[in-house]
Amino acid sequence: MAKTSLLDRSATSLRLEIAHRAARLIAQDHIHDFALAKKKAARQLGLSDHRNLPSNQEVEEALADHRALYQPTHGHEVQTLRSKAVKVMRVLADFQPYLTGSVLSGLADAQSDINLLLFLDDPKSVELFLLNERIDYAHLEPSPTQRFADHPTLAFWFDDTLIKLHVRPRTAERLTPRKDERARVEQVEQLLAASR
User: Mean pLDDT across the stretch 147-168?
Assistant: First the structure.
């Protein structure tokens, strides 16, 4: 019995070590893909077995610890990005955008982009809006595995930050992502007010 608990403790401590190394990669090397950061951290620690990788939650906790120690301005950076998101969401109010991704979760850093989800029956309507507002945008290439690849992802710059508009069919609104992974402008404003 003691042998099993010793092995469990060893596996737990190894998972934490990988989580902290992955968190450092995310914070310092701006790797935003958690799976990639975990695998790279494991390789750096000389591990080839990826069965004991930490969960995303463990990496998020390690990242919060890392930023509290080494990046004391991180909270301000997230607030700045959320403020920019609110401004853009207000401009796009007719499309009822959601904020999603690292700016919403609080994992963003100064180099992060702002990701907005738009659920539309007519995906071209947002492009016409951007043209009418003289906003210079570009189409981003969909990844081969991306769902809704026939709906565009548009990108433009606002106040030195890249904004990505992920257009999805209206029917997908109830499918992806989970409701706690996206927020309307009012919810983002509440987050801003709560952290002042």
Answer: 89
Question: Could you tell me which residues come within 8 angstroms of residue 33 by beta carbon, excluding any fewer than 6 positions away?
Answer: none
Long-range contacts of 37-45 (CB under 8 A, 24+ apart): 42/18, 45/17, 45/18, 45/21
- Give the Cα separation of 90 and 171 in Å (integer): 23
Structure tokens given for 164: 């990505």
pLDDT (tens digit, 9 = 90+) per residue, 128-156?
A: 999 999 999 999 987 666 666 678 899 99
Q: Is residue 117 classed as helix, strand or coil in its secondary structure?
A: strand
Tell me: domain 74-194, CATH 3.40.630.30, correct? no
Distances (CA, A) of 68 to 56, 121, 148: 18, 43, 38
Domain regions of the chain by residue span? 2-70, 74-194
Which residues does residue 34 pair with via DSSP β-bridges, in sequence order? Answer: none
Bridge partners (DSSP) listed for residue 155: 138, 164
